[in-house]
Amino acid sequence: MSPGSSRLPLQTKGALYVLLLITAIFLAVALVVYTSVQRDLEQQLVSENLRMVRDLATSARSPIVTTDLTDLQSLVEQAASNRAVKAAVITDATERILASAELSQLGQKRPDWAKGGGTQLPEDSATALLPVSTQDFLKTASHPIRVGGERLGTVHVRFAPEELRQIVAENLTATLQKLMWLGLFTGLVGAAGAFLVSGFVTRPIRRLTSQVEAMERELALDEDGTDSRPGSEGDELDRLQHGFHRLRYTLSRYLIELDRLHRKEQALNCLATIGEMSAHVAHELRNSLSSLRGASRYLRRHPEAAEKAEFSQIIEEEVSRLYEMTEGFLDFSRPFEPQLEDRDLCELVSDTCARLQADYEGAGVTLECTCSEPQVCPVDAQLLHQAMTNLLTNALDVLGAGDRVQIRVEAESERSSRITVLDSGPGIPEEERERIFKPFVTTKDHGSGLGLAVVSKVVLQHGGNIEVENVPEGGARFTLSLPHTTH
Question: pLDDT for 277-287, tens place per residue?
Fold first, then answer.
């Protein structure tokens, strides 16, 4: 296809293709029709000429019996007046010419062209005339003249094939004109139909092209707000392809920029987290060190004081608190890779509940664990035990005597299981719910604020998800989702 045609709209191209197809089909049909009509005309013309020869033999019976040569001559001249007839003679039983279009042949032997090789018509006039080949036009024909079974003579007719072809050509002219008019009508209707069909078929492509170009115009802007998109030429498919290439380039550029911004945001979040951690640790250390310093000063100044045991207890408690805070900080910051193996979640959760049952009974809180059927997932048993211990210990810290904690292990879908922990406590304030899994965030008066952060980290390391919500009846519900397979 030439470069100029590539700039045509897709609808125009489609219409041209359909129109070319219609033209090819019409030409093929027209060729078949023209050939068929030509063959029918040739066979019809030959059949009429053969019938004329047979009718001439029939008409010549009476004049030849009565020896009326004038009538015979008249019949021959009438036959010779046919433009397709080149010569016609009537001979007697001895093959001498009785009548001829050329008077000089009267009384002579039949001419050479009538001595054989022509078409011999059947003597029975009721016999149907067979069509002749269109490759070889009728040249001569003969028919016997019989009366009462006796052969009285023969009619010989010589035809002019070139005149026969001319007659056929003249008759075909009308057919050709009709085909031309039909072709013109078909072309007009086909062109209109082709444009309509092409427009209907290409409408979704044109609409998609417009949408892609509109999106490209929105995205392909430089930093100063100018359109950096180069002009595109060609039909809708070329423009659509160009638009997709440009969109892919633009989106890849945006994704690279987004990844850079994401890394930058992560770095800033890490710095913010480190700042929070540092401030929290410094605050806790300062409080504990203040208590330690005060107790040690008092003991140094009053070595024999009666409160010596009390201040020693203060020092021991503060050291223990610093130790617990340091352990929690190390647990959260320590990188780990879960050692996954297929384990039954019901068994693991039940074991954790059994270990904490005494603490719950001592606080007057009911702990229930329900599991209808085994739920096998690839987990690290030690890490999951740590996460469940942190979650249940946090719940116990905010509950009082008479409260209840219900744990349910069940299938979430064909691909995952879930552990639901529901308590009857005061719930979680809405403003704290979004940040409850962040480090050093706590709603309690004591604690490091790392318990739920460790729980979230363990669940995410298993490829799962953790959610928290307040229930209408009161209390909070934690849902841990764990996949059946790892990726």
Answer: 677 667 667 77
- Cα-flanking dihedrals φ and ψ of residue 96, to 5°? -95, 145
Q: Are residues 38 and 155 in the same domain?
A: yes
Query: 380 is written with which tokens?
Result: 């690290």
The more confident residue out of 145 and 235 is 145
Rounded to whole angstroms, the Cα distance separating 387 from 352 reads 10
DSSP letter (8 states) at residue 468: E
- Count how many domains the chain has: 3
Residue type, 131: P
- Token duo for residue 220: 């392909």
Closest listed residue to residue 90, CA positions, set 103, 116, 72? 72
CA-to-CA distance for 165 and 137, rounded, in angstroms?
Answer: 8
Residue 462 near residue 445 (C-beta atoms within 8 A): no
Question: In terms of C-beta distances under 8 Å and separation of at least 24 residues, what long-range contacts does 368-374 make, across chains too?
Answer: 368/404, 368/405, 368/406, 368/407, 369/407, 369/409, 370/406, 370/407, 370/408, 370/409, 371/345, 371/346, 371/408, 371/409, 371/410, 372/410, 373/346, 373/411, 374/344, 374/346, 374/347
Q: Residue 225: left if φ>0, alpha if ψ -120 to 50, beta else—which one?
A: left
298 and 422 inside one domain: no
**CATH number, position 37:** 3.30.450.20
Domain of 278, in residue numbers: 220-334
CB of 101 within 8 A of CB of 34? no
- Secondary structure E strands in 320-415: 341-344, 366-371, 376-379, 404-411
DSSP sequence for 65-101: HTT-HHHHHHHHHHHHTSTTEEEEEEEETTSBEEEES
What SS3 state is found at 146?
A: strand
The dihedral formed by the CA atoms of 414, 418, 422 and 427, expressed in degrees to the nearest 10: -110
313 shares a domain with 355 = no
Who wins on pLDDT, 234 or 100?
100
CB 43 within 8 A of CB 272: no
Report which of 117, 67, 59, 130 is spatially closest to residue 93, judged by C-alpha positions: 67
pLDDT digits (tens, 9 = 90+) for 348-395: 999 999 999 999 999 999 999 998 888 999 999 999 998 899 899 888
Side chain identity, residue 48: E
Give backbone dihedrals phi and psi of 438, rounded to 5 degrees, phi first.
-85, 155
Count helices and strands (H / E) in the chain: 11, 12
Give the DSSP letter of residue 113.
G
Q: pTM for this structure?
A: 0.45
Q: In this structure, are 293 and 351 located in the same domain?
A: no
Question: Which of 308, 334, 360 marks a domain boundary?
Answer: 334
